[in-house]
Specification:
With 92 residues, the protein is an all-beta fold. It has no helices and 5 strands. It has one domain: Beta Barrel (Sortase, Chain: A), CATH 2.40.260. The chain is globular and about 40 Å long.
């Protein structure tokens, strides 16, 4: 079943007592794999970018022409920034 194309964006905490799904996001490096599983299937993405962006920068959410995943979380030392990890779908 095709689950579409574009930019899948997910946000979560990276620390705290609950809902810290991105607790290991700081260990990701360019080239690492991200697996995203839904009831429609599983996709694997290769990390292509890791940036800190302004909390007001919504450009990371824009639609893309290729299958992309965007992970966003807070930056511990600066509440005005967000860590943004982008990955491109890996095809077999």
């Amino acid at each position: 079943m095709d689950i579409g194309t574009g930019n899948v964006c997910l946000a979560s905490h990276n620390r705290g007592s609950y809902a810290h799904y991105f607790e290991k996001i700081n260990t990701l490096e360019i080239g690492d794999e991200i697996m995203y599983q839904t009831k429609l299937g599983t996709r694997v993405y290769t990390v292509s970018q890791i940036n800190k962006v302004s909390e007001e920068d919504l450009s990371v959410l824009e639609e893309t022409n290729e299958n992309t995943i965007t992970l966003i979380t807070c930056v511990k030392s600066d509440k005005s920034l967000r860590l943004c990890v982008k990955g491109i779908e890996k095809y077999n």
